[in-house]
Predict the 3D structure of the following.
Amino acid sequence: MIKFTFYLFSLVLIFAASRVITVKNPVHAALFLVLTFFSSAAIWLLLQAEFLAMVLILVYVGAVMVLFLFVLMMLNINFDTLREGFVRHLPLAIFVGLVILAEMVLVVGAWDHAMPTEVAAGSNTAALGSILYTEYVYPFEIAAAILLVAMIAAIALTMRPHTRAKYQKPEQQVKVRREDRLRIIKMDAETKD
């Protein structure tokens, strides 16, 4: 039963991944990418990597893909201009794809498929946390500091004041008096000749 489920999710994963690069609409491609992530998470659950499966769903599907879909739907993309150079760049794309395929075959061929004979006590999440917070605590903290600096830099770049933008100043609007805005002029009436 597990082998059948693995092959079923693998076929769905291959189908969805191929549709990501072959579908013409970017929103549909993003939705197929969500299906790819869910299929990968299901395969990781079958391999008893619960933490990686949950992180994939929470981070990529829950945050990154929602943001990506939001940006895609908010942008006014002209799909005709995106498809103009497809045939011209097809040989280069096929070459790069074949190079990536050859690298993956070399990596999988050199990989030792032997499973460890002894399984550590507890879940893999506990083992990952134990290693992360003992042996790799300094790289983990450095990565956290780098991400914090990147987040602050992104906020600072987006919050930069624009020179062309005009802003209202409520504190000045409240202090305005009638005499500052309205001036009554008394003039003699005009007469017709």
Remarks:
- The radius of gyration is 30 Å.
- The longest helix spans residues 50-74.
- The chain is about 70% helix and 0% strand.
- The mean pLDDT is 80.
